[in-house]
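Reopening this ticket.

The earlier resolution said the output was attached, but the attachment link was broken on my side. Pasting everything inline this time so it's all in one place.
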Amino acid sequence: MIIETSSPTGAARCRDGNAASLLLFLFLAISTGCVTGAPAFEPDAAPIKSAAWPYQWTGNEWPQAGSAALTNVSVYSYTVMNAWPHDRGAFTEGLVFRDGILLEGTGGVGQSNLRKVELESGKVLKQVNLAPQLFGEGVTVLSSNVYELTWLHHVGFVYDLDTFRRATNFSYAGEGWGLTTDGRWLILSDGTPRLRFLDPKTFEVTRTITVVSHGRPVKELNELEYVDGEIFANIWQTDFVARIDPVTGEVLGLIDFSGLLPAADRDATTDVLNGIAYDAAGKRLFVTGKRWPKVFEVQLQVKP
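Inline output:
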């Protein structure tokens, strides 16, 4: 594990950062996927508005500073080891490091895609677009497959890792937010305190855990990454990443990424922290955000 030795934003936003786009999305005609030869799917009629939108943290809710839920939970800070360019237009929903390359899933109505990105340059090496009515969400890699979620349409996709050719589709109940794997199961977040473990072949739910801190449920769990036996989860609209026990669901610690993206690198389009990738062989942790111009390699340390 990489344990070496601002507070929540509070600004409620649509998950695509554009209310008008979301309203348009709800009335678009439903069509099939955009990859030639890919299996079709039958999504629901125009889905209802997400239960998590709009949402704003209040002073009485976890994980605000001073909350009782933070008692005896280790809080980690970070040191930036490296920074690399990142496409400022990418509304990052999923991030994976694999064999020297970042795989990134982006969201946004009419803007969602899956891409391979060269870490050092930020160059997009390969890309496949989702159908325009779909809002892309979390991604993960297991064996030779890439798995990708969508937000409200209850459908996920499986791609060949090398070619990005779509192999199949799968369905799930509720919303799709984050996705990772422990090497055996797919682990899915849906904006609630619940994480679901799915069989990667049948996509049946094998078990669930409820993420809690001192008995209180932790909601708005977004992008996920499996890191040395723990689940790391962005907490949407905050600068926190929760470290979660995958067996009990207990929050083991919080990483405070306040100030990670300097003010000089922000503009009117900059959105929230979201995007965690881990290089297990090199013990490197990468973090970025929605429409951020940089990807950071960070090293963690316990706050004094």
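Reporter confirms the inline version is readable. Helices lie at 19-27. Residues 19-27 form the longest helix (9 residues).
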